[in-house]
Amino acid sequence: MGCFECCIKCLGGVPYASLVATILCFSGVALFCGCGHVALTGTLTILENHFSKVTSDHAMLTDVIQLMQYVIYGIASFFFLYGIILLAEGFYTTSAVKELHSEFKTTICGRCISGMFVFLTYILGIAWLGVFGFSAVPVFLFYNIWSTCNAMRSPVANLTNVDTICVDVRQYGIIPWNASPGKACGSTLGDICNTSEFYLSYHLYIIACAGAGATVIALLIYMMATTYNFAVLKFKSREDCCTKF
């Protein structure tokens, strides 16, 4: 066998679906974790400076945000390892399915591990659908504030009393009802929308939501690839049992 044929054979064992899913998963998780972490910090700064100036009023929210940031660290570490493991499993199962190398044989243990990855990837896919939906919530909240600021700048708003246009974040349950001031109106609201924290946090939340969506797509690709490889390996194991008798 020549060098060209050997290279073609090796390239045939590359799990392209798992490779694409791994790249997409790493990119999505990096965007979600990195942008989400910075956006949470910016959100806390906005609340402390404009909506809840008493520390005790948003103490629980501060603890929740810090907890979510620690969870983000765990998510990033877990999916870095899980992506590498799934890519390695993809190389193994692809080579076993295509029977490129004689040393790659299907065993009961190998099929059980493949089945475990199929089940775990399905569970993670469902979990990330929830994460994707949850990450859209701050985008919706910031969009409401942003659209309210745009309404203030419209010609119609200039003809009326701008101070009557307000945003009350207490109605979203972010801070308690006894928080002071709890809402921003008129020029104060306009100043909030012009701050770098608001502009940065709003766009970072959008990117984080897009990263969560990319991770969901990556897990769907993983699910299709692992399910197909597991089904083929199980079918081949039955063929091997039939040829022995």
TrEMBL record:
Subcellular location: Membrane
Organism superkingdom: Eukaryota
InterPro entries hit by this protein: Myelin_PLP (IPR001614), Myelin_PLP_CS (IPR018237)
Listed GO biological process terms: axon development; central nervous system myelination
Positions of transmembrane segments: 19-47, 67-92, 113-146, 204-228
Key words, A-Z: Membrane, Transmembrane, Transmembrane helix
GO molecular function ontology, one term from the record: structural constituent of myelin sheath
GO cellular component: myelin sheath; plasma membrane
Main location group: membrane
Membrane topology: Multi-pass membrane protein
Family matches, as PANTHER family: MYELIN PROTEOLIPID, NEURONAL MEMBRANE GLYCOPROTEIN M6-B
Family classification: Belongs to the myelin proteolipid protein family.
Name of the featured protein: Neuronal membrane glycoprotein M6-b
